[in-house]
Amino acid sequence: MPKGIYLHKKGQGGRKGKSGTNGKDRHWKLSDNTKENIRKARIGTTQLQKTKDKIRKTLQRPRLEIRGDKHWNWKNGITSINQSIRNSFEYNLWEQSIFVRDYCKCQNCSENRIRNLVAHHILNFSQYPELRFAIDNGITFCNKCHKLFHKKYSVKNNTRKQVEDWLELNKN
After folding, report:
1. Nearest one of 36, 34, 1 to 19, comparing CA atoms
2. How far apart (Å, rounded) are the C-alpha atoms in residues 149 and 158?
3. Which of 101, 106, 86 shows the shortest CA–CA distance to 135?
4. What is the CA radius of gyration of the chain?
5. pLDDT truncated to tens, each residue of the chain (172 aa)?
6. Disulfide: which of 63, 84, 136, 142 matches 106 by Cβ 3.0-4.6 Å?
7. Residue 62: inside a domain
8. 155 with 121: CB under 8 angstroms?
9. Boundaries of domain holding 1
């Protein structure tokens, strides 16, 4: 092994490399002295003009937006209507409106970490398509409370009364 480079335990950072025989990952780490020597050796060096031009050309190249049947992951338009609605701009706007109205807090347990919050449809998403984007048809729950709510009341035929009972039950 070269001087200044030593084997490092997996998962603690360092430089990755493949061993030649068994294909397992090996992790290498440069000593501070070796890093300093590399820094000193690179002082005053510049990239070749050819390399600079190649980088500039790559950065200036317009990105192609490939959509629909031209995209590599196209699967004949099998996205469900449910999924396409839940990924839409309108749904995102509805969800954000619910969070803002409820001050980004679970209405059951007051959890306020935004990544744990869910905008729950009071009247079911599938049964009431006309109320999918109605702001008064939503309430903010955390993931845990949302799962517990659906565990108790099922995922179908939910009503406002169930939500009110759920909130009242957990207040005490």
Report:
1. 1
2. 10
3. 101
4. 27
5. 556 655 555 554 444 444 444 545 555 678 888 888 888 888 877 778 888 888 777 777 666 667 778 777 788 877 788 888 888 899 999 999 999 999 999 999 988 888 899 999 999 988 899 999 999 999 999 999 999 999 999 888 899 999 999 999 877 6
6. 142
7. no
8. no
9. 1-18+25-42
Please, are residues 95 and 119 in contact by the beta-carbon 8 Å criterion?
yes
DSSP 125-155: TTT-GGGTT-GGGEEEEEHHHHHHHHHHH-S
Identify whether 47 is part of a domain: no
The verdict on pTM exceeding 0.90 is no
On whether residue 164 sits in a domain, the answer given is yes
Tokens standing for residue 137: 């048809």
Helix (H) or strand (E) holding 109: none
Does residue 160 sit within a domain? yes
d(CA 145, CA 43): 58
Closest CA to 163 of 171, 153, 155, 172: 153
Per the structure, how many domains does the chain have?
2
Give dist(CA 57, CA 20) in Å, integer: 35
| Distance of alpha carbon 97 from alpha carbon 91, whole angstroms | 10
